[in-house]
Write a structure and sequence with these properties.
Strands 1, 2, 3, 4 and 5 form a 5-stranded antiparallel beta sheet that branches. The chain has 2 domains: 4-36 and 95-162, Muramoyl-pentapeptide Carboxypeptidase, domain 2; 38-76. It is globular. Helix 2 packs across helix 4 and helix 3 (51-63) packs antiparallel against helix 4. With 166 residues, the protein is of the alpha+beta class. The protein has 5 helices and 5 strands, in the order H-E-H-H-H-E-E-H-E-E. 36% of the residues lie in helices and 13% in strands. The two termini are 28 Å apart. Strand 2 (101-108) and strand 3 form a beta hairpin.
């Protein structure tokens, strides 16, 4: 569960609306991630990546975005042993860092459904996305410009580049 009070003033009413409509539609969902700290983002970003890419990203944060603080957070995060990439966004580059996104997963008969390959699993994800979009949010399950992320919902038109410099 997330703390809705951590969500931005822009996202919070839409999150509340999502909770209402999913309940009224008898659609079971677990929202498991909302606002994320830069430290949490760094840990997720490091997972599945080689150190050379992590260092290159830190250099980009420091030089291009003038955020040596974020570069330091990324480089000092504990090493991740997993081989699976968990996020495409470094610290400061995620809508989660600004309270502008949440992640959820549909449930069926009380069990979380991560499967998006079978027709039954995909149908649950599509329904989740339809509910997200019905309240004016962007569902990352429709992304074509980058990797799709079925759990991810964010404020439509959000661009971290506008906020990273503070």
């Amino acid at each position: 569960m997330i703390n809705p009070d951590d969500l931005s003033a822009v996202l919070r009413p839409r999150y509340d609306a999502f909770c209402r409509i999913s309940n009224s539609a008898s659609f079971q969902v677990l929202v498991y991630c909302g606002k994320r700290s830069d430290e949490e983002q760094a840990i997720l970003f490091r997972n599945g990546r080689k150190m050379a890419l992590i260092k290159a990203t830190a250099t980009d944060l420091e030089k291009k975005w003038r955020r040596p603080d974020l570069a330091h957070i990324l480089l000092s995060a504990p090493p991740q042993m997993g081989k699976v990439i968990k996020t495409w966004a470094a610290p400061g580059q995620s809508a989660h860092n600004y309270g502008m996104a949440f992640d959820g997963v549909p449930k069926h008969c009380g069990k979380l459904v991560w499967d998006d390959k079978t027709p039954e699993g995909l149908a649950l994800w599509v329904r989740y996305g339809e509910l997200i979009e019905s309240i004016g949010l962007e569902w990352a399950g429709r992304w074509t410009r980058k990797k799709r992320e079925f759990p991810h919902a964010q404020v439509r038109g959000f661009d971290w580049r506008e906020l990273i410099s503070g």
